[in-house]
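Thread title: Can someone regenerate the structure for this chain?

I was given the following input by a collaborator and told the matching structure tokens would be attached. They weren't. Posting the sequence so someone can regenerate them.
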Amino acid sequence: MKHTVITLFVFLLVLPLNAVLRTYSFIPLSLNEGLTDSKVQCIFRDHVGVVWIGTKNGLNSWDQSELKYYLHNPSNPTSLPDNYIKFITEGTDQKLYLSTNHGVGTFDPVLKLFTPILYKDKVFEAWSCLQADSVLLLGGRQTVYSYNYHNKLLTPLVHETKGDLNKCINKISSWDSHTYIASTKQDGIWMYDLEKQTMSRCPFVQERNVNNIFVDSKGCLYVSIYGNGVFRYRHDGTLDKHFSTQNGKLTHNVVFDFMEKDSIIWMGTDGGGINLLDLRTDKVECIKHISGNSHSLPNNSIFCLYKDTKNNIWGGSMHSGLFFITENQIKTYQDTPPNFPYGLSELTVTALYEDIDTLLWIGTDGGGLNAYNQHTGLFQHLSTTNGKKVVSITEFSPEKLLISCFNDGLYIFDKRTAKLTSFLLIDNHTTRKEFTQGDLINLYATSDEIYIFGSNIYVYNRHTQHTKQLPIPSHLDRESFIHAQPIHADNQYIYILSYKSLLQIEKTSKNIAQLFGVSDDEFLSSACIDNQGKFWIGSNYALYHYNAASQQAEKIQNVLFHNIQSLTSDDKNRIWIGANNQLLVYLRNEDRIVMLDKTDGIKPNGYIFTPIPLSPSKNIYMGGTQGLTVIDKNIEISDKDIPIVNLLSINLDGKDVTRDVILHKRLTVPYHHSSISFKVIVDESTPFRKHLFNYLLEGDEPRKIQSKSRKIELGTLKPGNYTLLVNCNANNNWDESTQLLNIYVQGPMWQRPWFISLCILLFLIICISGIWLLQKRMNYKLKLALAKSKREQEEKLRFITHLNDVIDNNIDKYGLDNQFLQTEMAMGRTSLYNKLKQITGMGINEYINQRKIEKAENLLLNTDLSISEISDRLGFTYQRYFSTIFKKIKGISPSQFRNQKNI
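Best answer:
Regenerated them for you:
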């Protein structure tokens, strides 16, 4: 059996190699992503870019960030009246119109408000719609109705209904400039004449059980008859062709829906997948779900097809939800059950080797060896290698491979019989030593030799069948050869990459030399050579371009070039880079980087450097922890469109305030707020593309947020004015910043202008009032002080006058002393002393003497009394004492005073 399988592969290899056909990828939005039901009945993408999905169990929306749902709530009369959604569309008024089993109306997703459209004040049902000028045509139960966006009136196109009164018009199309054509489930096809305003049966279609109709770009009518395929009529009404399973044109006789793109009619069938009719050849191809094949159609029962304004195709299935259809030339293969031919035996790819006959051999981490046939796109799991961790593969002979298995050894694999044979590395001891240290042993074959890279370098001579160990030069660190990967060979050298250096081995002399190295904190991870013979080397920090002829290296730094995991090149001057679990393409001629994602057929992958020479086939291969990526070399990377980033929604403290803000793009935020968040949506052809955004908040508290998320939380902001801007990295070209929103955060009440003005006014009033009151109080106090001072002065004057009178009247008495004055003044000793001291600064005796001397001066000057007589008259006991006191006070004796004055 094994021999038969291998023989089959060998037989297929003799077939000519054709270019990989353009294939489709399907990006699902199903129950796994949160869709409310697996049956999708209608799809619509609005002017903002939000995709609306109608199911039999509710309305869903996808805004590039999250999937939301809206359901009927019996306790809320403004919610959806029913969960069964028949159609969704957007009017020229940019409102969302939808139909349910319980009525047609507009739906406001922000308020979650459904507003019914009434006919004669009753709920109105419709099964289909068509945009026509300034009105919306609605296929009702009996006839076609016209809804005017301006006056919001609903009127029937034809009042007198013929035929079945329960038509349930399921499709309306424009037939020509004055005619609409409509199909019904039970009453056939009808035509409405705009000029005559009449509705009559289609004269050339007699079938009544019509599933759907479609008018193509050539004016032909396609009629789906339940169980009988599709009939195509020319515009003159003659039958052109019948497509069915009986004549081999269709995969199923029940066709639910039609859609046209690029002269291809897409037909969704009930179990036969999607049939593609090429209008140029009338040939029909089929896209189907294949069990075990993750790249096939998600489901074979396709209920609806939709082409949006960006020319994208969407499909709604009966059992697998919604899916986005995109053409690409890249596939990522992952693991499948044993012996399934649509994927790998184990998820992680650790080694790749392409035969000259274009059969790709794949080493996996525990799943052994796999073979990928590039003609058929099918895999074969080699069960004889199951359990092996194959880390390197090379040619041993035209019929055999040499494979290196981690912690196991070297084996020769016979491609004809799938038999494994152990291969010794010099001897058993050397083999055990190399394969029990936990290191990767890598292989590279030339026409004469096989190089084996472990902790040492070994060379196996194919002719002598002997293996020898190469000496490591003393100037090179042996550790630098650990995990060494051979990346290229020419007529003279073999080039290998270690974690620190790019080295070359001269084939004849086996001399080893270092060409390029990095600093201690940097590590080399991968390398390749382009079609001009230049090396591209990836590290954990940057991408290097190295010219071996000139020995010049150029360092290319970019935020996307951090943690480069794998590199390979093609013949179109493109470098394919696996970095940070994503795939990049560096277009050298344009100096441009393109980020690939699931819309291109790429899945996140922890890429593992699996060096492979420039492929002789038309494919590029890259392996990693999440499978094998196969890229058609002829793929065109031409998407240079700059995406437009628009504001989608704003939330303030958990409340959606989009409607109040979006028109003027200005948000006023109260001081006591807890959170500000916003969401953006990207207007571009492919809605699932991943981008790197720079969100810039300019103002009093500037911020810069770089993120791949379309939803950003700003938290709280300080009071002030802010401007929110965004720019987007589209293929490494940062577009100009777009202003999304102006934000004004109010200050606390005490910081607001009106409050500050009020406070200033109150302050001025208080200051003026305070000054006035203070002045008034000071005046009052001054008045009191003056009155008090006057009283005190008068009292002092009375006291001194009285005292002087007492002294003067008794000045000649020898008993004029302190005791005498106390008695005369009726005061105590202390009181008399303190008061006199306060007024004159003198004690009682001193004051008496002062007063006597003043009298003595008068007597000396104005009388002829002797000094002795004056002394007696002034009450001095001794003349000598009088003279002493006089001189003490006046500075001269009494006689000197008299003589001085008389001169």
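Residues 753-809 form the longest helix (57 residues).
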